[in-house]
Amino acid sequence: MQLTAKADSKLVAVQSPVAGVVEIHEMAMDNNVMKMRALPAGLELPAGKAVELKPGGYHVMLMDLKGQVKAGDTVPLTLVFEGKDGKRETVELQAPARPLNSAGMAAPQGDQGGHGAHKH
Questions:
Q1: Does residue 49 surpass a pLDDT of 80?
Q2: What predicted TM-score, i.e. pTM, was given to this entire model?
């Protein structure tokens, strides 16, 4: 998904009824090693610039799933944005679930695309 803010703001939280925990993550290369980390302060959204959430970059991580999510299912998400003035706004959307290996996320047998330690 792509997020474009009209004014400088940030994505500070994501919620979903299908998961016990939802985090905003970043994957980035560090000394030729792909590392993933949560962004507890949120994801900066500069005014007028599209910020893409996708495999291998910024993404939303659903953990402690309350049931199986299959390719083709629709997952409800509530995105929470915060402006420079501290005001928060929520946007609700329905995201289509895709297979783990879609969009270039080919994972070796038994691997979960670098997410093996997470319960999701």
A1: yes
A2: 0.77
